[in-house]
Design brief:
This protein has ten helices and twelve strands. By secondary structure, the chain is α+β, with helices and mostly antiparallel strands. The chain has three domains: 2-45 and 141-186; 69-135, no CATH class; 201-376, 2-Layer Sandwich (Alpha-Beta Plaits). The strands form three sheets. It has a six-stranded mixed beta sheet, with helices on both faces. It has a four-stranded antiparallel beta sheet with strand order 2-1-4-3. Helix 1 runs antiparallel to helix 5 and helix 8 (241-258) crosses helix 9. The longest helix is centred in the middle third of the chain and has 55 residues, at 137-191. The chain starts with a helix and ends with a strand.
Length: 378
């Protein structure tokens, strides 16, 4: 569930990142397109150097005719009017009483004032009142080229950052997957036996205590099966520890294949295994005693089935086939209060010991009502 949520969140973040990148990319492309159209398509199409020179001279003559007085209120409308020409722009600069230069256009910088292509001093009478400046498209073209180059550099930077972010996401994702995998492996190894893959002794006992507590609260009976590989030390001494490990893996696989999905199986010791058989819940209407009897019978059936399959299985060792057998012990708990989980373990362990005493390869059950042991026929 948590992994699925992380995947969904990652996909959502990736989609959001792609959408933002798409909008930024389109903004940059539109910006470049506007610059190209304004400076390199629209104006150059109507530009002619000879025509620009004639028009600049004509603007100067028009200024002499249309501006009848040397006051800014008359000069400013003229400049505004002729700034609408597509490939020329007009400005008028003057000096104040302190000798500082000013322009009738508020947003013109000094560098632009000094870079006009056509310069016409304007006199009224014997006094020079200022200078008429006319810029042709070359200045605008250079400015457009600089702006376009700037946008290209911004676009390159954007793509570099985009690639870096994508690489970072991929590396983070890969690193996160490695961490998650290592975490799952560590969690698995913490509760599972390294050889057989069954639950470890510590985890099994902890789960048994929880199940006893649940059983006491809800009156759900449980059964415990303890089993031991017969004469395992002699098997190891005869065939070697590698063969012994193979035998334990074979037994654990048979046990796992014969219990139900909700039962708990653990490797309790070197060659000893434990199975916690839990009530399935289908006997809710029955009395506790009948349910306990039914569950015990199920546990006995499982134990005998496992014992029989192990007995019939041959293990290949050094080119020949050998077999092992199991001794089984079964005990059950009916949900009575103030019960110690160790009691259930001791009862199953004593039943297992009785099976070994009576010849091995057999199943013995501890009867809690009669407080006695009985051997089960195979």
């Amino acid at each position: 569930m948590r992994l699925s949520l992380l995947k969904t969140r990652f996909i959502g973040q990736l989609i959001l990142f792609i959408m933002i990148s798409w909008f930024l990319f389109n903004f940059l492309l539109n910006r470049q397109s506007n610059i190209m159209h304004r400076y390199f398509i629209e104006k150059p199409a109507s530009y002619n150097l000879e025509r620009a020179e004639r028009l600049a001279s004509s603007i100067y003559q028009s200024f002499r005719q249309e501006v009848s007085s040397p006051v800014l209120s008359d000069i400013r409308p003229f400049v505004t009017k002729y700034n609408d020409i597509p490939f020329l722009s007009v400005n008028f600069v003057y000096q104040d009483d302190d000798g500082l230069m000013h322009s009738v256009l508020d947003d013109v910088e000094e560098i632009n004032i000094l870079s006009a292509e056509y310069v016409y001093p304007i006199n009224f009478g014997t006094k020079e009142i200022g200078t008429l400046l006319i810029y042709d498209i070359n200045k605008e073209y250079k400015r457009g080229l600089e702006e376009y180059s700037h946008m290209m550099n911004v676009t390159r930077l954007f793509f570099a950052i985009l690639l870096l972010l994508l690489l970072s996401i991929m590396l983070f994702r890969e690193y996160n997957n490695i961490i998650e995998h290592q975490k799952r492996v560590a969690e698995y190894q913490a509760v599972h036996d390294g050889l057989t893959g069954l639950y470890s002794h510590q985890y099994f006992k902890g789960h048994l205590a929880k199940e006893i507590s649940r059983s006491e609260r809800y009156k759900h009976p449980v059964s415990l099966i303890m089993c031991d590989v017969d004469n395992f030390k002699n098997f190891n001494d005869t065939y070697g520890h590698l063969a012994g490990d193979k035998a334990l893996k074979t037994v654990s696989n048979i046990i796992s294949g014969n219990v139900r999905s909700f039962d708990i199986v653990g490797r309790y010791g070197g060659e000893e295994f434990a199975m916690l058989i839990i009530e399935s819940g289908i006997e809710e209407a029955e009395s506790i005693s009948k349910r306990l009897k039914s569950l015990t019978e199920q546990a006995i059936e499982i134990a005998n089935r496992i014992k029989s399959e192990v007995e019939q299985t041959q293990i290949k060792v050094e080119g020949k086939y050998v077999g092992v057998t199991l001794s089984m012990g079964v005990s059950s708990y009916n949900g009575e209060p103030n019960y110690n989980p160790e009691t259930l373990i001791n009862q199953a362990d004593q039943a297992l010991y009785r099976s070994k005493e009576n010849g091995r390869n057999r199943t013995t059950v501890y009867d809690a009502d009669k407080k006695d042991f009985r051997e089960i026929a195979s």
